[in-house]
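Q: What does the assembly look like in three dimensions?
Context provided by user:
Components: four
Sequences:
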Amino acid sequence: MTQRNIQNIKVAVDAVVFAYKEKTLSVLLVKQKFGVNKDQWVLPGGLVKDDEPLKEAVERELFEEAGIKVNYLEQLFTFGDDINRDPRNRVISVSYFALVNPTKMKLKSGTDAKDAEWFPLDEIPQLPFDHNKIIHTSIKRIQSKLAYQPIGFELLNKEFPFSDLENLYQTILNKEIDRRNFRKKILSFGLLNETDKMSQKGAGRPAKLFKFNQSKYNKLVKEGFLFEIK
Amino acid sequence: MTQRNIQNIKVAVDAVVFAYKEKTLSVLLVKQKFGVNKDQWVLPGGLVKDDEPLKEAVERELFEEAGIKVNYLEQLFTFGDDINRDPRNRVISVSYFALVNPTKMKLKSGTDAKDAEWFPLDEIPQLPFDHNKIIHTSIKRIQSKLAYQPIGFELLNKEFPFSDLENLYQTILNKEIDRRNFRKKILSFGLLNETDKMSQKGAGRPAKLFKFNQSKYNKLVKEGFLFEIK
DNA sequence: TCAAAAGTGTTGAGTTTACACCCATGC
DNA sequence: GCATGGGTGTAAACTCAACACTTTTGA
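A: Here is the predicted structure of the complete assembly.
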């Protein structure tokens, strides 16, 4: 700060990884094994390497800290207005949010020997830095995303009953949806294909399984649509 | 890169400032007076100071380089995947986009003795770094913004004829709009208040002047709406 | 009186909402 | 046979899209 021409700001990346299981949205947190915040849960992330693209830094950290690879990753926001967000140093955080299907992967304590765990949204503890704020921002983002892009492919199993999608939307938006109207609307986009399989487990009448029409899905992600859910 | 624990990445901010004049959208560029890119036009911006919030860094650079203060500033994207986007050093750019009414301010060559000028979108030259890409991203952003938030307050005069708003939308979206339907829709939001003034200059019948209903405007910016323009 | 831009309504089509009962299965 | 969740249709309300002529002013 006193020396000329030497900027002393560190660049970190952090990720809010969402998974959907048992009708709740969860976020991935990892436990710090070292440092000032030892034993505290934090968002996965860390400093970017000098020769590393930002996005690769996120992917590396997710793999090192939790052993996962995500299939959807989007830049969220860069937090750097609070110059003391990290009390040790000036650090700005380029934050990402990611979507994964938790049944496809096992969390494993990574090479950094950190623990990793899914926390349902309403059980997220107080976190160090501005990590709670980052999570809050990412929830807003995913909610508003629903209005103009399809979501689900990255979070659900390959084949799923219609009610999974319906529950996913209800969970993210945190409100009730009319089952019949929702189904009509989704089907009218041509987003889903029926399979000839039926769900097995559980009470009640077995449900047809659907899968996403991948090319239609990609098209709608790119072009967007307007989809207000009442 | 070889030394441990010393990250060597610089953090810059850049701004895409939009102004609307004479039925075209323009972007502010400044001329570099020193350095490798001497005499080239670039986006206003520069390195962030160690004890400076990101947003303040943008505001400072805009004032130093062009003598302006903007009334709308939004973070756009952080460019840092191309590790050679600046050939001299690893620099990541936290980019912002801003909206201003150009009649309210005079550009002035700032304390850095740079020139500053408005460039209509279709006259923007090849720029160094990834500045053309940043501008392209910001145009996409402003276009998609129109579908869920009102825009105009920051770009138009305090009191303006309805046709100004109509032209603004047509310019940003780059397509024709049905005058009658557009007027009905905008008025139905309660976004505008009539004044009792009339436009003076120009051919044709004089037009009523409108102004934005500030509180309604802020409310719609916050809450958003769905507004598809055919 | 002509050119230029402002102002203004209606109708048909399409979309959205609200709403409730029967079906298939496991226990 | 009952509890559980799955599957389905319709009518009324509303919103959207398409469309053209009249008014006011200055030159």
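Follow-up: Chain A touches chain B at residues 1, 7-11, 47-56, 75, 77-78, 80-83, 90, 92, 94, 144, 147-148, 224, 226, 228 (CB under 8 Å).
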